[in-house]
Please model this.
Amino acid sequence: MKRFTLIALCAAAAAAGIDAGAVLKVPSRNHTAPAKRTHAELKALLRAASENPLWRPATEKVYFYEEIKDDNGEVKGEWRLEDTYTLTYDQQGRRIMELCENAFDGFSKNNYTYDANGMLSTELTEVSEDGQKFENSTKTERSYDNKLTSVITNNRQWIWIDNDWNMAGNCYQRIITRDNDGNITSAVIAVLLDGKYDPTRRLDITYADGKAVTLKESELTYDGIEYKWVDGLTISDIVWNKTNGQIVSTEGLFAGDNRIASCTMTDEDVSLHYTVTYSEDGAYVANVTGNNGTDDLTAKIVYENDYDPEAYSSYRVTTTSDFMEGGEVVETTVEIVEGAYDKWGNILLEQASFGDGEFMDIEDRISGKPVYDTEYGYPIEQTIYEYDYELMEDYPALRYTSEGYFDASAGIDDVTVDTDAPVEYFNLQGIRVANPSAGNIYIRRQGAKTDKVLVK
Model:
Protein backbone atom coordinates (compact mmCIF):
# COMPACT_ATOMS: atom_id res chain seq x y z
CA MET A 1 0.00 0.00 0.00
CA LYS A 2 1.38 3.40 -0.95
CA ARG A 3 1.47 6.18 1.62
CA PHE A 4 2.43 9.49 0.08
CA THR A 5 1.81 13.12 0.72
CA LEU A 6 -0.76 15.11 -1.21
CA ILE A 7 -0.14 18.55 0.21
CA ALA A 8 2.04 19.87 3.02
CA LEU A 9 0.97 22.76 5.21
CA CYS A 10 3.50 24.87 7.10
CA ALA A 11 2.40 24.71 10.74
CA ALA A 12 2.73 28.00 12.60
CA ALA A 13 5.94 28.28 14.63
CA ALA A 14 6.90 24.66 14.00
CA ALA A 15 10.65 24.90 14.05
CA ALA A 16 11.33 21.22 13.45
CA GLY A 17 10.21 17.77 14.48
CA ILE A 18 7.19 15.77 13.39
CA ASP A 19 6.70 16.91 9.79
CA ALA A 20 3.43 14.92 9.74
CA GLY A 21 1.94 17.68 11.88
CA ALA A 22 1.65 19.80 8.76
CA VAL A 23 1.08 17.12 6.14
CA LEU A 24 -2.17 15.91 4.62
CA LYS A 25 -1.71 12.19 3.87
CA VAL A 26 -3.63 9.68 1.82
CA PRO A 27 -5.60 7.74 4.46
CA SER A 28 -4.62 4.07 4.69
CA ARG A 29 -5.55 1.06 6.80
CA ASN A 30 -1.98 -0.21 6.42
CA HIS A 31 -0.67 2.27 8.94
CA THR A 32 3.07 2.75 9.39
CA ALA A 33 4.51 4.35 12.52
CA PRO A 34 6.92 7.28 12.06
CA ALA A 35 10.64 6.50 12.08
CA LYS A 36 12.48 7.14 15.35
CA ARG A 37 14.73 10.19 15.37
CA THR A 38 18.48 9.84 15.39
CA HIS A 39 20.76 11.60 17.89
CA ALA A 40 21.89 14.02 15.16
CA GLU A 41 18.27 14.88 14.27
CA LEU A 42 17.51 15.65 17.91
CA LYS A 43 20.53 17.97 18.05
CA ALA A 44 19.32 19.74 14.93
CA LEU A 45 15.92 20.11 16.56
CA LEU A 46 17.51 21.81 19.56
CA ARG A 47 19.53 24.14 17.37
CA ALA A 48 16.44 25.10 15.36
CA ALA A 49 14.74 26.93 18.22
CA SER A 50 14.79 30.62 17.32
CA GLU A 51 15.25 33.14 20.12
CA ASN A 52 12.84 36.01 20.54
CA PRO A 53 14.26 39.12 18.79
CA LEU A 54 16.63 40.38 19.65
CA TRP A 55 17.92 38.73 22.83
CA ARG A 56 20.70 36.37 21.84
CA PRO A 57 22.88 34.03 23.92
CA ALA A 58 26.65 34.30 23.57
CA THR A 59 27.11 30.64 24.50
CA GLU A 60 25.08 27.47 24.15
CA LYS A 61 25.97 24.03 25.49
CA VAL A 62 24.42 20.75 24.34
CA TYR A 63 24.35 17.69 26.61
CA PHE A 64 23.24 14.11 25.96
CA TYR A 65 21.81 11.78 28.56
CA GLU A 66 23.76 8.60 29.21
CA GLU A 67 22.88 5.69 31.46
CA ILE A 68 25.86 3.93 33.03
CA LYS A 69 26.36 1.24 35.65
CA ASP A 70 28.09 2.13 38.89
CA ASP A 71 30.39 -0.14 40.89
CA ASN A 72 27.36 -1.84 42.45
CA GLY A 73 25.83 -2.62 39.06
CA GLU A 74 23.06 -0.06 39.44
CA VAL A 75 22.11 1.89 36.32
CA LYS A 76 22.21 5.63 36.77
CA GLY A 77 21.77 8.41 34.29
CA GLU A 78 23.86 11.54 33.92
CA TRP A 79 24.16 14.45 31.55
CA ARG A 80 27.34 14.47 29.46
CA LEU A 81 28.56 17.62 27.71
CA GLU A 82 28.81 17.13 23.96
CA ASP A 83 29.05 20.55 22.26
CA THR A 84 29.87 24.08 23.40
CA TYR A 85 28.92 26.84 20.97
CA THR A 86 30.31 30.38 21.02
CA LEU A 87 27.99 32.57 18.95
CA THR A 88 28.28 35.86 17.09
CA TYR A 89 25.37 37.76 15.47
CA ASP A 90 24.68 40.65 13.16
CA GLN A 91 22.41 43.50 14.24
CA GLN A 92 19.36 41.72 12.84
CA GLY A 93 20.00 38.90 15.32
CA ARG A 94 21.15 36.40 12.69
CA ARG A 95 24.02 34.10 13.51
CA ILE A 96 27.11 34.98 11.52
CA MET A 97 29.55 32.72 13.37
CA GLU A 98 29.25 29.51 15.39
CA LEU A 99 32.36 28.16 17.05
CA CYS A 100 31.69 24.60 18.25
CA GLU A 101 33.92 22.69 20.63
CA ASN A 102 32.97 19.02 20.58
CA ALA A 103 33.90 17.10 23.72
CA PHE A 104 35.14 14.17 21.63
CA ASP A 105 36.12 15.48 18.21
CA GLY A 106 37.89 18.85 18.21
CA PHE A 107 36.51 22.15 16.93
CA SER A 108 34.43 23.40 14.02
CA LYS A 109 33.54 26.94 12.97
CA ASN A 110 30.65 27.97 10.75
CA ASN A 111 30.54 31.44 9.15
CA TYR A 112 27.31 32.71 7.55
CA THR A 113 26.32 35.56 5.25
CA TYR A 114 22.82 36.60 4.15
CA ASP A 115 21.26 38.27 1.15
CA ALA A 116 19.17 41.46 1.16
CA ASN A 117 16.04 39.44 2.04
CA GLY A 118 17.65 37.82 5.07
CA MET A 119 18.11 34.40 3.43
CA LEU A 120 21.28 32.37 3.91
CA SER A 121 23.69 33.22 1.10
CA THR A 122 26.95 31.48 2.07
CA GLU A 123 28.10 29.05 4.74
CA LEU A 124 31.76 28.24 5.32
CA THR A 125 32.76 25.42 7.69
CA GLU A 126 36.28 25.18 9.07
CA VAL A 127 37.71 22.51 11.41
CA SER A 128 40.51 22.44 13.94
CA GLU A 129 42.05 19.98 16.36
CA ASP A 130 43.19 22.58 18.91
CA GLY A 131 40.78 25.48 18.36
CA GLN A 132 43.62 27.73 17.20
CA LYS A 133 44.58 26.71 13.67
CA PHE A 134 41.57 26.15 11.40
CA GLU A 135 41.45 24.72 7.89
CA ASN A 136 38.68 24.70 5.30
CA SER A 137 36.19 21.84 5.33
CA THR A 138 33.01 22.62 3.35
CA LYS A 139 31.23 25.61 1.89
CA THR A 140 27.76 26.30 0.48
CA GLU A 141 26.48 29.10 -1.75
CA ARG A 142 22.82 29.79 -2.48
CA SER A 143 20.79 32.09 -4.68
CA TYR A 144 17.03 32.60 -4.74
CA ASP A 145 14.16 33.42 -7.05
CA ASN A 146 13.65 37.16 -7.59
CA LYS A 147 9.93 36.97 -6.83
CA LEU A 148 9.75 34.04 -4.38
CA THR A 149 12.68 35.27 -2.36
CA SER A 150 12.83 32.20 -0.07
CA VAL A 151 12.84 29.64 -2.90
CA ILE A 152 16.33 28.36 -3.72
CA THR A 153 17.20 28.44 -7.42
CA ASN A 154 20.87 27.49 -7.13
CA ASN A 155 22.48 25.46 -4.34
CA ARG A 156 26.20 24.71 -4.66
CA GLN A 157 28.41 22.83 -2.20
CA TRP A 158 32.15 22.23 -2.10
CA ILE A 159 34.49 20.00 -0.09
CA TRP A 160 38.08 20.99 0.68
CA ILE A 161 40.37 18.25 -0.70
CA ASP A 162 44.11 18.48 -1.41
CA ASN A 163 44.17 22.23 -0.68
CA ASP A 164 41.46 23.01 -3.20
CA TRP A 165 37.69 23.30 -3.36
CA ASN A 166 35.95 20.41 -5.13
CA MET A 167 32.28 20.74 -6.02
CA ALA A 168 30.33 17.89 -4.45
CA GLY A 169 27.36 17.15 -2.23
CA ASN A 170 23.91 18.64 -2.67
CA CYS A 171 24.36 20.69 -5.85
CA TYR A 172 21.19 21.50 -7.74
CA GLN A 173 19.32 24.16 -9.69
CA ARG A 174 15.61 24.94 -9.64
CA ILE A 175 14.70 26.27 -13.08
CA ILE A 176 11.48 28.31 -12.88
CA THR A 177 9.55 29.32 -16.01
CA ARG A 178 6.79 31.95 -16.00
CA ASP A 179 4.24 33.01 -18.61
CA ASN A 180 3.58 36.56 -19.77
CA ASP A 181 1.29 37.13 -16.77
CA GLY A 182 4.06 36.13 -14.35
CA ASN A 183 2.44 32.81 -13.40
CA ILE A 184 4.79 29.86 -12.93
CA THR A 185 4.25 27.23 -15.64
CA SER A 186 7.07 24.83 -14.74
CA ALA A 187 9.64 24.17 -12.05
CA VAL A 188 12.47 21.76 -12.87
CA ILE A 189 15.02 20.35 -10.45
CA ALA A 190 18.39 19.67 -12.12
CA VAL A 191 21.20 17.99 -10.16
CA LEU A 192 24.93 18.16 -10.82
CA LEU A 193 26.26 14.99 -12.45
CA ASP A 194 29.63 14.63 -14.17
CA GLY A 195 30.10 18.39 -14.32
CA LYS A 196 26.71 19.35 -15.73
CA TYR A 197 23.19 19.85 -14.40
CA ASP A 198 20.72 17.18 -15.53
CA PRO A 199 16.94 17.58 -14.98
CA THR A 200 15.58 14.84 -12.68
CA ARG A 201 12.20 16.11 -11.42
CA ARG A 202 9.69 18.55 -12.84
CA LEU A 203 6.34 20.15 -12.11
CA ASP A 204 4.22 21.33 -15.03
CA ILE A 205 1.27 23.65 -14.47
CA THR A 206 -1.68 24.27 -16.80
CA TYR A 207 -3.73 27.47 -16.50
CA ALA A 208 -7.24 28.55 -17.47
CA ASP A 209 -8.53 32.09 -16.98
CA GLY A 210 -5.30 33.01 -15.20
CA LYS A 211 -5.54 30.26 -12.57
CA ALA A 212 -3.83 26.86 -12.35
CA VAL A 213 -6.20 23.98 -13.09
CA THR A 214 -3.71 21.09 -13.22
CA LEU A 215 -0.41 20.35 -11.47
CA LYS A 216 1.54 17.39 -12.82
CA GLU A 217 4.71 15.89 -11.36
CA SER A 218 7.12 13.69 -13.30
CA GLU A 219 10.48 12.12 -12.50
CA LEU A 220 13.39 10.87 -14.57
CA THR A 221 13.84 7.14 -13.88
CA TYR A 222 16.04 4.33 -15.20
CA ASP A 223 14.37 1.04 -16.14
CA GLY A 224 17.61 -0.89 -16.63
CA ILE A 225 17.80 -0.02 -20.31
CA GLU A 226 17.21 3.69 -20.65
CA TYR A 227 16.27 6.84 -18.78
CA LYS A 228 12.73 8.08 -19.28
CA TRP A 229 10.26 10.47 -17.71
CA VAL A 230 7.53 8.81 -15.62
CA ASP A 231 4.36 10.61 -14.53
CA GLY A 232 3.76 10.93 -10.82
CA LEU A 233 1.20 12.79 -8.74
CA THR A 234 -1.37 14.82 -10.67
CA ILE A 235 -3.69 17.35 -9.03
CA SER A 236 -6.52 18.28 -11.41
CA ASP A 237 -9.88 20.04 -11.52
CA ILE A 238 -8.49 22.62 -9.09
CA VAL A 239 -10.76 25.27 -7.62
CA TRP A 240 -8.92 27.82 -5.51
CA ASN A 241 -9.82 29.53 -2.27
CA LYS A 242 -7.08 31.97 -3.31
CA THR A 243 -4.00 31.85 -5.52
CA ASN A 244 -1.25 34.08 -6.87
CA GLY A 245 0.17 31.72 -9.48
CA GLN A 246 3.51 31.36 -7.69
CA ILE A 247 3.58 27.58 -7.29
CA VAL A 248 6.80 25.53 -7.33
CA SER A 249 5.63 22.37 -5.53
CA THR A 250 2.59 20.21 -4.82
CA GLU A 251 3.27 20.82 -1.13
CA GLY A 252 2.00 23.75 0.91
CA LEU A 253 -1.21 24.26 -1.06
CA PHE A 254 -3.53 24.51 1.96
CA ALA A 255 -1.83 27.59 3.41
CA GLY A 256 -0.41 30.97 2.51
CA ASP A 257 -1.11 32.63 -0.81
CA ASN A 258 -2.19 29.41 -2.59
CA ARG A 259 -5.04 27.50 -0.95
CA ILE A 260 -7.01 24.79 -2.74
CA ALA A 261 -10.78 24.70 -2.20
CA SER A 262 -11.32 21.47 -4.14
CA CYS A 263 -9.34 19.12 -6.39
CA THR A 264 -8.87 15.56 -7.57
CA MET A 265 -5.61 13.77 -6.83
CA THR A 266 -4.43 10.77 -8.87
CA ASP A 267 -1.28 8.66 -8.87
CA GLU A 268 -1.33 5.23 -10.53
CA ASP A 269 -4.33 3.43 -8.94
CA VAL A 270 -5.03 6.16 -6.34
CA SER A 271 -7.90 8.55 -7.00
CA LEU A 272 -9.19 10.88 -4.28
CA HIS A 273 -11.32 14.01 -4.32
CA TYR A 274 -10.76 16.77 -1.72
CA THR A 275 -13.14 19.56 -0.70
CA VAL A 276 -11.74 22.09 1.77
CA THR A 277 -13.27 24.92 3.78
CA TYR A 278 -11.21 27.49 5.67
CA SER A 279 -11.71 29.72 8.68
CA GLU A 280 -10.24 33.20 9.09
CA ASP A 281 -7.33 32.00 11.26
CA GLY A 282 -6.11 29.54 8.60
CA ALA A 283 -7.69 26.44 10.13
CA TYR A 284 -9.48 24.13 7.71
CA VAL A 285 -11.69 21.08 7.31
CA ALA A 286 -11.04 18.75 4.35
CA ASN A 287 -13.50 16.07 3.24
CA VAL A 288 -12.03 13.24 1.18
CA THR A 289 -13.71 10.56 -0.94
CA GLY A 290 -12.36 7.97 -3.37
CA ASN A 291 -9.96 5.03 -3.41
CA ASN A 292 -6.45 4.96 -1.92
CA GLY A 293 -5.26 2.09 -4.11
CA THR A 294 -6.68 -0.71 -1.97
CA ASP A 295 -9.81 0.62 -0.25
CA ASP A 296 -12.78 2.83 -0.96
CA LEU A 297 -12.94 5.48 1.75
CA THR A 298 -14.37 8.68 3.10
CA ALA A 299 -12.26 10.82 5.44
CA LYS A 300 -12.42 14.06 7.34
CA ILE A 301 -9.27 16.03 8.10
CA VAL A 302 -9.46 18.85 10.64
CA TYR A 303 -6.57 21.32 11.06
CA GLU A 304 -6.68 23.53 14.16
CA ASN A 305 -4.55 26.55 15.03
CA ASP A 306 -3.63 27.46 18.62
CA TYR A 307 -5.58 24.61 20.21
CA ASP A 308 -3.37 24.68 23.33
CA PRO A 309 -4.08 27.79 25.45
CA GLU A 310 -0.93 27.20 27.52
CA ALA A 311 1.38 27.43 24.49
CA TYR A 312 2.46 30.50 22.52
CA SER A 313 1.56 28.68 19.28
CA SER A 314 0.19 25.24 18.53
CA TYR A 315 -1.52 23.14 15.86
CA ARG A 316 -3.38 19.85 15.65
CA VAL A 317 -4.37 17.72 12.67
CA THR A 318 -7.04 15.04 13.20
CA THR A 319 -7.74 12.60 10.37
CA THR A 320 -10.77 10.33 10.73
CA SER A 321 -11.08 7.70 7.96
CA ASP A 322 -13.92 5.29 7.21
CA PHE A 323 -12.86 2.36 4.98
CA MET A 324 -15.61 0.79 2.91
CA GLU A 325 -16.39 -2.61 1.45
CA GLY A 326 -19.58 -3.10 -0.54
CA GLY A 327 -20.73 0.35 0.51
CA GLU A 328 -20.46 -0.52 4.22
CA VAL A 329 -17.94 0.87 6.72
CA VAL A 330 -15.66 -2.00 7.81
CA GLU A 331 -13.02 -0.02 9.74
CA THR A 332 -12.57 3.44 11.19
CA THR A 333 -9.16 4.90 12.03
CA VAL A 334 -8.13 8.14 13.71
CA GLU A 335 -4.73 9.79 13.41
CA ILE A 336 -3.82 12.86 15.47
CA VAL A 337 -0.67 14.90 14.95
CA GLU A 338 -0.03 17.93 17.15
CA GLY A 339 2.64 20.41 18.12
CA ALA A 340 3.02 23.17 20.71
CA TYR A 341 5.80 25.77 21.12
CA ASP A 342 6.82 28.66 23.36
CA LYS A 343 7.41 32.20 22.04
CA TRP A 344 11.12 31.45 21.52
CA GLY A 345 10.42 28.52 19.20
CA ASN A 346 11.23 25.86 21.80
CA ILE A 347 9.27 22.64 21.52
CA LEU A 348 6.77 21.95 24.28
CA LEU A 349 5.20 18.93 22.56
CA GLU A 350 5.27 17.17 19.20
CA GLN A 351 3.21 14.00 19.11
CA ALA A 352 1.62 11.56 16.67
CA SER A 353 -0.98 9.03 17.80
CA PHE A 354 -3.09 6.44 15.97
CA GLY A 355 -6.09 4.27 16.84
CA ASP A 356 -9.83 3.95 16.50
CA GLY A 357 -10.70 7.15 18.36
CA GLU A 358 -11.47 5.43 21.66
CA PHE A 359 -8.14 3.68 22.08
CA MET A 360 -5.15 5.62 20.80
CA ASP A 361 -1.48 4.56 20.74
CA ILE A 362 1.30 7.14 20.88
CA GLU A 363 3.55 6.45 17.92
CA ASP A 364 5.99 9.31 18.22
CA ARG A 365 6.43 11.94 20.90
CA ILE A 366 8.99 14.55 21.79
CA SER A 367 8.35 16.90 24.68
CA GLY A 368 10.35 19.85 25.96
CA LYS A 369 10.71 21.50 29.35
CA PRO A 370 12.22 24.98 29.05
CA VAL A 371 13.56 26.95 32.00
CA TYR A 372 13.44 30.75 31.75
CA ASP A 373 15.44 33.58 33.31
CA THR A 374 13.39 34.83 36.26
CA GLU A 375 14.17 38.49 35.54
CA TYR A 376 14.08 38.80 31.75
CA GLY A 377 12.14 35.72 30.65
CA TYR A 378 14.48 34.38 27.95
CA PRO A 379 15.19 30.60 27.93
CA ILE A 380 18.32 29.50 29.78
CA GLU A 381 17.73 25.74 29.53
CA GLN A 382 15.72 23.33 27.40
CA THR A 383 15.47 19.58 28.01
CA ILE A 384 14.11 17.27 25.30
CA TYR A 385 12.38 14.02 26.23
CA GLU A 386 11.60 11.07 23.94
CA TYR A 387 8.87 8.50 24.44
CA ASP A 388 9.56 4.89 25.49
CA TYR A 389 6.89 2.79 23.78
CA GLU A 390 7.39 -0.25 26.01
CA LEU A 391 7.39 1.58 29.35
CA MET A 392 4.91 4.18 28.03
CA GLU A 393 6.80 7.04 29.62
CA ASP A 394 9.11 9.87 28.62
CA TYR A 395 12.87 9.64 29.12
CA PRO A 396 15.51 12.40 28.86
CA ALA A 397 17.43 12.61 25.59
CA LEU A 398 19.12 15.99 25.10
CA ARG A 399 19.57 19.27 26.94
CA TYR A 400 20.98 22.65 26.02
CA THR A 401 21.78 25.68 28.11
CA SER A 402 22.05 29.30 26.95
CA GLU A 403 24.26 31.88 28.69
CA GLY A 404 25.42 35.48 28.35
CA TYR A 405 22.33 36.96 26.70
CA PHE A 406 22.64 40.40 25.10
CA ASP A 407 20.69 42.62 22.72
CA ALA A 408 22.14 41.86 19.28
CA SER A 409 20.48 44.92 17.75
CA ALA A 410 22.66 47.18 19.92
CA GLY A 411 25.83 46.17 18.06
CA ILE A 412 29.22 46.83 19.67
CA ASP A 413 29.75 50.00 21.70
CA ASP A 414 32.98 51.60 22.91
CA VAL A 415 32.82 52.08 26.67
CA THR A 416 35.08 53.16 29.46
CA VAL A 417 35.07 51.01 32.62
CA ASP A 418 33.18 52.63 35.49
CA THR A 419 33.91 50.56 38.59
CA ASP A 420 31.14 52.35 40.54
CA ALA A 421 28.34 51.43 38.10
CA PRO A 422 26.06 48.44 38.92
CA VAL A 423 27.14 46.48 35.84
CA GLU A 424 28.06 42.85 35.15
CA TYR A 425 30.47 41.65 32.46
CA PHE A 426 30.66 38.24 30.77
CA ASN A 427 33.17 36.98 28.23
CA LEU A 428 31.94 35.56 24.93
CA GLN A 429 31.84 32.11 26.52
CA GLY A 430 29.21 33.38 28.96
CA ILE A 431 31.53 33.34 31.99
CA ARG A 432 31.22 36.23 34.44
CA VAL A 433 34.31 38.48 34.47
CA ALA A 434 35.02 40.53 37.61
CA ASN A 435 37.60 42.86 36.03
CA PRO A 436 37.20 43.28 32.27
CA SER A 437 40.44 43.99 30.43
CA ALA A 438 40.81 46.93 28.05
CA GLY A 439 40.79 46.04 24.35
CA ASN A 440 38.51 43.00 24.70
CA ILE A 441 34.86 42.44 23.78
CA TYR A 442 32.44 41.49 26.56
CA ILE A 443 28.74 41.05 27.19
CA ARG A 444 27.62 43.85 29.52
CA ARG A 445 24.45 43.62 31.60
CA GLN A 446 23.18 46.63 33.52
CA GLY A 447 19.64 46.63 34.87
CA ALA A 448 17.27 45.54 32.11
CA LYS A 449 19.80 46.27 29.35
CA THR A 450 22.30 43.79 27.96
CA ASP A 451 24.66 44.58 25.08
CA LYS A 452 28.01 43.71 23.56
CA VAL A 453 30.82 46.20 24.28
CA LEU A 454 34.44 46.85 23.49
CA VAL A 455 36.12 47.83 26.77
CA LYS A 456 38.69 50.64 26.67
About this structure: The CA atoms of residues 154 and 173 lie 4 Å apart. The chain is about 0% helix and 60% strand. Helices lie at 39-48.
